[in-house]
Design goal:
Elements: H1 4-59, H2 70-73, H3 80-89, H4 94-101, H5 105-113, H6 120-130, H7 134-143
Helix pairs in contact: 4-5
Length: 144
Amino acid sequence: MADIKTVLREMVIRIAKQEANAKVRPLEKKVFELRESCRIQKKLIGELQGKLSEISGNIKPEDKTLTVSPDAMENVRFFPAQIVALRKRLALSVRQFSKLAGANRHTVASWETGKSKPKDEHKAKLIALRGIGKTKAKELLYRK
């Protein structure tokens, strides 16, 4: 005959497992439903992002304000102090200014310190930036 201690222990374990399963099974079903819902939502988000990029690609207006004729670029020099003054006049951070200039923020910082000079494609944007004000700069930043 089995020891009463062992029998009681086995009964307690069996009852504890039954109670635990009774609590866990509904939660497992709920987790499955939530995972399925997440999967569906991710798929929907992907579809919507695709449509958005398609729509924004069609609507995106060409920005004529930051274009400069090749004649205007001849003999134009930018000194570090000019770049700093331009950025401060537009009330922009280095990161914001770099976005408008089409350059990396580290590149803009090196222009401002005189470690490097803007290349022609950036010079064109800098020339165009000289002709706009704070409000227009903020609008352009908002669009990008």
